């Protein structure tokens, strides 16, 4: 199912439709400020397992990333030092993934990993979805290295490719092709481990 949502003014009815699917453990494809991504309620373990299986990712070995609405509940999901918090506050919302040590609130599926990626994208659609859901959203970018680029940027082609694998696809216009910049904040020697779309302000 493809649902059109406008970033400037997300329709509450359409937002509710997507959020209800996530509450039921459904998988959703949505735009971010970088590339289109696939996600689910980050605290729904079965949904997280479903996405990992679909993407061929071992949750025990791979870094998982979650999208938060803002930084206010961050300490529920990650341990964040004062220095890391200041850096994030300067750069978010934006095209960054900050790697932080996990906290005890995340389900066990994340526990075997000592780190979690935190995103607050500069995109009104996904942030509204997170806000309405009331939980962070587990997120994985749609783009695979061997993909034809249009299949991860054009919502109609995304639907053609993924309609039988996810529960709903949000059409928020054409997506980007450049992934987020990833910063390791597990210590206070911050290190950019992947330069992407975002230019970090220190």
Automatic annotation (TrEMBL):
Residue ranges of domain YrdC-like in the record: 12-198
Record-linked Pfam families: Sua5_yciO_yrdC (PF01300)
PANTHER family found in the cross-reference section: DHBP SYNTHASE RIBB-LIKE ALPHA/BETA DOMAIN-CONTAINING PROTEIN (PTHR42828), THREONYLCARBAMOYL-AMP SYNTHASE (PTHR42828:SF3)
Protein name stated in the entry: Threonylcarbamoyl-AMP synthase
